[in-house]
Amino acid sequence: MVQRDIDAIAEETSFSGVVRVDLDGQVQFAKAYGLANRTYRVPNRIDTRFGIASGSKGFTALAVLSLIGEGVLDLGTTARSLLGRDLPQVADDVTVEHLLTHTSGIGDYLDEETDAEITDYFVGAAQKLTTTEAFLPLLDGHATKFAAGERFSYCNGGFVVLALLAERASGVSYHDLVRQRVLRPAGMTSTDFLRSDELPADAAVGYLPLDGVDRSNVFHLPVLASGDGGIHTTAEDVSAFWRALFAGNIVDRVEEIIRPRRNVPEESMRYGLGFWLHENTDAAILVGYDAGVSFKSTHDPHSATTYTVISNTSPGAWPIARALMP
């Protein structure tokens, strides 16, 4: 696609966000559209920070995998061995690998297989969710859906459990684990866990339609992200992340991370260890969708091409992503 095509889709859909294309480490296209803050009419910039919802599940996976590389955890480590008496409905045979591949079968506090709307409120007292341990009441009380390893079922709660296991195994908070083991080696200097109730000036407010008015998503999401997603980043940092990952700067044996573990035909994709994968190629994909957030980034390691679309509205990224990404 050329700029006029992207511009046309952006105008037609009132796109708010940033589009970026990199080829072999060089920027081919980067442009910002719409407003980061509608109250004060602050425009998005190419260096604006956006929440990426589940896009940061890949960061959680890498933090866990780096601990595995050091022998602190193992793919076969059971969740129960670190949960103790917490979350009693998590089956005793659920392992780290099951959680990483969405095959654990545990009940999900944010189950995407229901008919819920993106505008619904899910997390209750969002302002209390500032640590991984604070998620325990939300994660508790959900019955097992199927036996561990039986099938793929996307599970947000499973990645919060992963964050909890990583904390308990390492003695380091989840947020610091990601900072130390993913963000720093990737050179992601503009990426961090930001409180939604005190966003800095360079961060976009997420918007969604409520009662006929576009409102902030501050009451819809945890005030501070945990293992299942929500970190804030820039399109430039996303490009830096892909380069660092495939250069081996974050973890070793990247080929094992992006080796397909499950086919997910309903999404026309496959799944590795914390990463979506293209159904026919070796391209790795991060995707995020939540109240006031939409994000997709695809990296093809063979052509060294990265496509990123990041938006501060729920539907915003998809029309351009569908047209742009192979």
Could you name the key traits of this structure?
two-stranded antiparallel sheet, Beta-lactamase, globular, Beta-lactam/transpept-like, single chain, alpha+beta, membrane
Rg estimate, integer Å:
19 Å
Spatial order of strands in the largest sheet: 2-1-14-13-12-11-10-9
CATH architecture: 3-Layer(aba) Sandwich
Shape: globular
* Number of beta strands: 14
Q: Give the N-terminus to C-terminus distance in angstroms.
A: 11 Å
Strand percent estimate: 15-25%
Task: Give the arrangement of secondary structure elements.
Blueprint: H1 3-13, E1 17-23, E2 26-33, E3 35-37, E4 42-43, E5 50-51, H2 57-69, H3 80-83, H4 96-100, H5 136-139, H6 156-170, H7 174-186, E6 207-210, E7 213-216, E8 232-233, H8 235-246, H9 254-257, E9 262-264, E10 269-271, E11 276-278, E12 284-290, E13 293-300, E14 305-311, H10 318-324
Antiparallel strand pairs: 1-2, 1-14, 3-4, 5-8, 6-7, 9-10, 10-11, 11-12, 12-13, 13-14
3D architecture notes:
The chain has 326 residues and is an alpha+beta fold. The chain has one domain: DD-peptidase/beta-lactamase superfamily (Beta-lactamase, 3-Layer(aba) Sandwich). The chain is 27% helix and 19% strand. The protein is built from 10 helices and 14 strands. The protein has an 8-stranded antiparallel beta sheet with strand order 2-1-14-13-12-11-10-9, sandwiched between helices. α2 packs across α7 and α7 packs across α8. The longest helix is centred in the middle third of the chain and has 15 residues. The relative contact order is 0.21. The mean pLDDT is 94. InterPro entries: AmpC-like, Beta-lactam-related, Beta-lactam/transpept-like.
